[in-house]
Protein 1
Amino acid sequence: MIEARNSDTLLDVLGLHTYFYTYEGVVKAVNSVSYKLNRGEITGLVGESGSGKSVTAQSIIRLVKAPGKIVEGEVWLDGQDLMSCSETEMQTIRGRKISMIFQEPRAALNPLFTVGDQISRVIQLREGCSRSVAETHAVEMMRAVEIADPDRRANAYPHEMSGGMCQRVMVAMALSANPLLLIADEPTTGLDVTVQAQVLDLIRLRVKSAGSACLFITHDLGVVAELCERVIVMYAGRVVEQGPVAEIFSNPRHPYTQGLIASTLRVDIDKPISTIPGTVPDAVHLPSGCTFHPRCPFAEELCQLEEPQMVEAGHGHLTRCHIVSGRIEREMLEEAWTMETA
Amino acid sequence: MTNANGEAFVQIRNLRKDFPIRVGMFSHVRLRAVDDISFDIPKGATMGLVGESGCGKTTAGRCLLRLIEPTSGEIRMGEHNLSDLKSEQVARMRGRMQMVFQDPGGSLTPRMTIGAILREPLDLHTNLNAHEKDQRVRELLTQVGLQPDHLSRYPHQFSGGQQQRIGVARAIATHPEFIVLDEPTSALDVSVRGQILRLLTRLQEELGLTYLFISHDLSVIKHTCNQVAVMYLGRIVEIGSTEDIFGSPSHPYTQALLSAVPIPDPAQRGKERLKLPGEVPSPIDLPPGCRLYSRCPYRRDACLEPGPPLLQVGESHKAACILVDENLRIGGSNTAALSQLA
C-alpha cells in the first residue's frame, strides 16, 4: 500500500484471498483485496451480486463457510493479527470488538426468544453482569435506537415486529457491545425508503458517537453518497477503485465505477437511461486480463492480456486500470454509457 | 417513453379489493387492500404505480388483469368491460393483457426449456401451427436480445437479466396490447437494470404497448412513466404527470417519499428532508380520515374526518390532502405553504 500506516487506522486488510472450491472449479470470490478502515469513519463497500463484497466481510470475522477458504492474506484489527488468532480468541472478538448487522433482520434474530432477551444476552456476555442488570441495559439500548415504548417492546418476539423495527433491534444488539468495528451487510435492502432513511440516520449517529469504524456493504450508490466517507468498489472479486467519497463520485477513474454511476437513476435529474453492456462474468471462468474488459467500452488488446495493477490516481484515490496507469493512451468519454446496447 | 395523448385505453373506476382476515374461529375482519382507486391510461402510455410495501400496488395490478377478483369497481380495456366478463371470457382475453413479474427466476418453470416456456402462451391463445410457433419463438428471442439457439436451455442457465428478458418475451408472445409490469427490475443489478428498462421502452415504441409500471423505486418510475399514481395504504394519495409528481409533489406523503430517496451525489448530502416518523400502520380497521394522519407533520383535526377526496392541484394533477385545497384558494404553491405550516 502507498499510504503509511497511521494511528487512525483500525482495520488493515492486506492481500486477502478467499477461494471457494466447488465442483465446477475454484471461485476466487475475494482476490487480492487490500484496504484500511479508519476510526470514526463509515466506508462503503460497493459492488453487484457476486462481486465478493459479502465474502470480504465474512473473511474479516473468519466466518467463511465451506467450501470457502481464506487462502492468503493478513487482517489486522487494532494491532492484532486476526488470521493468527485461535478460534476461541475469535469468538471473543466477534460480538465484542466486531459486530455485524445482516441484510434480513428477521432471519438473523432467533424467533424463539423475545428481542429484549436477545439483546440482554449480548450485554451479559460482554459485561459478565447479572441478568436483571443486562435487561435494564437492553431496554436502554432499545430506547437509543428510537424504538417507541421499549419496556413493552422488549417482550415482543421478532415476528411481532415490522422489518424496520427488527433492523433497529439488530442495530441495538450490534452496538450494545460498543464494538471497535461494525460491519453492516446491506442493512437497509428490503426496507422501504422512509424507513431506510431512519435506519441510516441511526447507524450514522451511533457510529459517530461511539467512534467506531464501520464497513457498510451496499449496492446502492445513493446510500454511499449520503452516508460514507470512503468508498471501495469491487468487481468480480477484486477491488477496482477506492478513495474518498467526494473524489470517487466527482472523478471516477475506473470504467466500471463510471458505468455504475452513469447507470444509477436519479430522482433529482433527468438523464437518459445508461447501462453497462453485458452481464457480470461467471465466477468460475473469469475473463483473462482485466476482468471487466468484455464489458468495458474502452478496452483494448492489452486489457485482455494483462491484469492491471492498482495505481494511485491522486487524492488517496486508487484504481486498477491500464488507461489510468498510462499503459494505454485513450480518452474515456462519458457518452460511451448511453449508447444503445439493448 | 412514448408520449401518448388522447383517449383512455385502460380505464379504472372505483376499484376496491377487500381481503377477509381470520381473527377467531368464526370471525373475520376486513383488510381493504385497494380502496376506491380510479385512473386512466392512454394508449401507448405508461402509468406508474408507486408506493411502499403493503400499499396495495401489486393487488391493484393483479385486479386489473383479473388475476384476483376485485370486490367492486369497473375495469375497461379498449371496448371491453373486463369487470363484466365471466372468468372463461377473461381467460380468452388473457392473450391481450399480460404481466411481467418481479422475480425473474421464480416466474419461469425450472423444468421447462425456454422454447417450451415461450410456446405455452402460443398454444393457449393462438391458432399457429407447429412450424409457425417455432418461428415465433425464435423471433421473440431475437426481439428481446437473446440468441435463437438458446431455446433448448433451461432458466437456471441464464443470468437474472437474461431471465427477465425471457419473462418479457413470454409477455409479448401473444401480441398483447396492455402489460402490467410488477417491479420488473427490482431483483436486478444496477448495471443490468438499464438494459431491461431500455428493452421495455423499445418494445413499447415498436409494438404500441400500454404499460402499468408498478414499482417502489421512484427513480425507475421517473425515467419510464408518463403519469404516476402514488399509493399509501390502499388509496391513491396523489396522481398526475411525471413532471407534476416529481416537479411539484403536493401530498405530504409524496414529498416525504421523494425526500427519503438517497441522492448519489455526496455534494448534496445534508439537504433538508421531510421526514415521516414511525412506520406504516396496520391496514386492518383503518380510521375513516386521512391514512397518513398518524405520521403526517402537518396534521390537523380536520384530517380525521372521512376523506379527503383527490383535489385538483393542476390541470391533470390531483392530491388527496385538505391543505391542497386551502392553498389553492390562496393561490400559493403547496410545498411552500406546507413548510410554512410546519
Note: Chain A has one domain: 9-97+179-338.
Protein 2
Amino acid sequence: MRRVRRQVLLLLALTLSLSLVGLTGTATGQAVKNPDTFIQVSFGDWDTFDYAWAYDTSSHTVIFNVYEPLVAYDGGRVDRFVPRLATAVPSLQNGLVSADGKTYTFPIREGVKFHDGTPMTAEDAAYSLQRFLMIDRDGGPSSLLLEPILGITKTRDDKGNLTLKFDDLQRAVQVKGNSVVVTLKEPFGPFLSIMALWSNVVSKKWATANGDWNGTAATMAKYNNLKKESSAFFEKANGTGPFKLERWDRAGKQVILARNDGYWRKPARLARVVFRSIDEAATRVLMLKAGDADSIAISRREQPQVEDDPNIRFIDNLPWLRTDAFFFTVDIDTRGNPDVGSGRLDGAGVPANFFSDIRVRRGFAYAFDYATFLRDAFRNQGALPKGVIPPGMLGFNANQEYFIFNREKAIAELREAWGGQVWERGFRVTVLYNTGNVPREIGARILKDGVEALNPKFRVDVRGVTWASYLAAMNDGKLPVFWVGWIADYPDPHNFAFHFLHSDGTFPKAQRFKNDELDRLVVQAIKETNRDKRQALYFQINKKFFELAPSVSPVNQVVFRVQRSWVRGWYNNPVFPGTDYYTIFKG
Amino acid sequence: MTAFVLRRLLLLPLVALGVTLLIFGLLQMLSPQMRAALYVTDPRQLRAVDSVIRTHGLDKPFHIQYVGWLSRVVQGDLGWSETAKMPVAKAIATFFPATLELTMFAVVPIIVIGIWLGTLSAVHRDRIVDHFSRFFSISGTSMPTFVWGLLLLMVFYGTWQLFPPGRLSLEPNMYVLSQQFRPYTRLMTVDALLNGQLWIFVDALRHLALPVLTLSLVSCATLVRVTRSSMLETLRQDYVRTARAKGLESSIVVNKHARKNAMIPVVTLSALLFVGLLNGVAITETVYGYPGIGLWGVNAAIQLDAAAVAGFALFNALLLVVGNLAADVLYAVIDPRIRLR
C-alpha cells in the first residue's frame, strides 16, 4: 500500500512540474535545422496540380515553383515584367505587340528542358495556352484568358454543350517559327499581367503520353470541363521550373518538391521544399518555435505567440491585393427568408427592395466605425479604405473621398430614405457572415452597433452561417447584407471593378445590382490602352463606387509573414500565390 | 456460437443500407446550391454554381442519386472523395492504418491501467489510492481532449522537443517515401521493423507517444470509473465474503474471484472504446497533425462530401457490428454461464 501511495505521489509531482515548466519555456538559440530543406506548414489541402484546373492558393503555390510562364513579374514588382520562357517581353517598342494592340508575339527561349529531360519548344507553349483555354472547368481560371483572347467567358452553353471552336483556338494561338503568337479579340490592357501568372508551359508530348489532350479538335470535347482526377497533371508534373514535384503524399498531407538540377538558370539553393498541412494553429506555432517549420500560416489571433520570439521574424504590413466589402442586395428574395423579418417596412422587417434606395446604403456605410474595425479585427494593421481598388494598383486614388464613421451623416441619409418611412417606422434586418471568419464577424457586430445606435427603432441581427448555406443564400439573393472578399487574379483594377461593379460581375449578380453608367465605364476602361486615360477612368469608377455604395469596403487589408530568422532570400510580391522558393536559402 | 456469429454478420448489409439511406436522406435535405459548396470554395467561383450543380447532377431526385451510388458500390466503387482527393475506398485504406496503429498502441494502456486502477480503487475504497483514482477519472473525463492534447504538446514538444507532432520526422519521412522502403502494412512501426529500420521505428514511436497518452488519459478515466463501480458491486457479493471467510488471500479473492465477474460491463465498454477509437479520434488527430481516418471523416462531413461521408459511415457500421460481435463472444468466454444463441 505504501509503495502504491509513493508511486501515486511521484506521478502527481511529475505531472505538476512538467506542466509548470512546459507552459513557460521555449527552445532558443537553435542551430539551423534541415539546412537545405524548407518546411512550410499551413492548413488546407491541395486541389490538383493541373495548371489549367487549379484555382486555389495551396495548389498554385506548388505549381508556381514547378512550372514557368512565358513572362514573369520582376521580383516584387507588379507593374514590370521580365522574360521567362519567352526571350523578350512583348511591347510596342520592341515590335512584339502589334500597333492595334491585339497581337502579341512571344519568342520562345531555346535550351530549356522539362524535368523529364525533353526540350521545351514553341509548340509546347502554344499547346499549353490552348489547353488552358479549352479545359474551362466549372468555376476554374480559364475565363481569365478566354475573355481577352477569345472574347468569351465560357466555352459551353447552358446545357453544358461545348461551344468553343477548335479553329478559333488555333487562330488565336499560333506557332510561327520559334515564337508563339497570340491574337486578342480586342485590345486588353492587363493581358501581360494575366500571362505572367497563368501562361505556364507543359510538355505536349508528356501530356499526350500520359493520356491527356493531344491538341486535336477530335478529342477536345472529351477534355473540356474534365474531371479533376482525369487530368494527367492531377498528381504528376513535368515542368521547367526550379523544382520538380517529387511526391504528393495525400496520406501524410504533404507535398514534396526536389531541386531541378538541370534548371536552365542557376539551380536553386534549397534541395527540397516540403509543404505540410496541419489544421491546428497552436501545433503550427509550436513547430515553428521548435524549428520543425521554417514558415507557417497563422491568423492575427496567434500573432502575440510569435512576434516577440527572437528566433522568429514577423514581417508585417505587406501589401495585399484584396478587397473585402459588405454588400447590399437590392432585390432580396424574401420568400421564406428569416433574414428580412416580416418582409415589409413595418418596423419588424425589410421589403425586398429595401437596399435599392441609395440613402439606406449610404446610411449604413456612414454608421460603420472603420477605425474600431481596423483595431479589433486587424490589430490596427492596414489602412482606412479608399474604394474598391486596393493600394498599389493602377486606378487607386489616395485622394478619393470615402466613407468615414459619421453619425450625423448616417442619420441624415436614413432620415431621407424611403421618403422618411425608414426613420418613422424602423426596420429589422440581418447582416450575415460565413462562420469561422473572425474579422467578418467583428465587422458585422460593429455595423449592428453603429446602425442600432442611430434610432431605437432600428434592429440589426448578426448571423453566422456555414459556407455551404452562405453560398446557396448568396446565389439565391437571400442575404440582405453579406460580407465577402476578393483576392486579385492578376494585378489590374479591371479584376476588381468588373466583379464588384459590372452587372455581369460576380457580386453584382448576387446583389441583383445594375447601373448602366458603371457597366459602360468598366467596359470602356478595359478597352482603353492608354495608361493615363485608364487611370482616369478607374478614378471615375471609384468615385461612382463611393456615390452609389452598392457595397462598402471597410478596410485596406495588409498581410504578414511568419518565418524563422534563419530564412534568407525571401521577397514579397503581393500577386504571387505563394513563396518563390528559387531565391530562398537558410543560414 | 457459429450460427450466432453468422446471423450477426448477415445483419451487416441491412445495417449498411439503413445507414447510407439515412446519410443520403439527410444530405438531400440540403439544397443543391448548398451541396455545390463542396466544389465552389471561393467567392471567385460564385458564378459557376449552376453549372457545378448540372455537372455533378446535384439537382437529380434523391432516388436516382442514391440508386446510382448504390449500384456503383455493389461494383466496388464507393465514389470519389473531394476532401481526400482520391477514391473513397482508397481513402479508407490510406487513412485507416494510421488510426489503427494509434488505437493499437492506445488501447493497451487504456485497458490495463483502467482495469488496474479501477480495481485498486474499489479494493482500497475511500483511501488515498481511491481518491487519486477518482481525481484522475474526473479530470480525465472533464477536461476536453484538445486541452489535454495541447497541454501535453506544449510540455513534451514545445519545451523539451521530445515528442513531435505528425507521424514521422523529416528524414525518416523522406526515407519512408523513397523506393527503398516497402510499405507492407502501412502501420509505420510494423513496416519499420519489417524493413529493418529501427531508427524509423523509434521515430514513429516518438510521434505516437503524445496521441497515445492523450487518448489514454481521456478514455482510461471512463474505464476506471466503470471498473471501480463494477468491482464494488462484486466485492459485496456473498461468494466473495465466503471466499474471504475461507481464509483465502486478499489478492486471490480480488483477482481470481471478484474481478472476473466484474468484467462484463468492462468488456462491453472496452469493446465500444476500441471501436470508437478505430472510428477515428478526430480531435486528437487534429491537435497532433496525425492524418487518420477521424480527421478525414470530420473534414468530409464539414464540407458535405456526400460520397466520403457515406463510405465512412459504411465502414464504421462494419466496425461497429464486428466490434459488438466480438464483445458478445467475449462475454461467453469470460462467463461460461452465458450461452450465445
Note: The two ends of chain A are 57 Å apart (CA to CA).
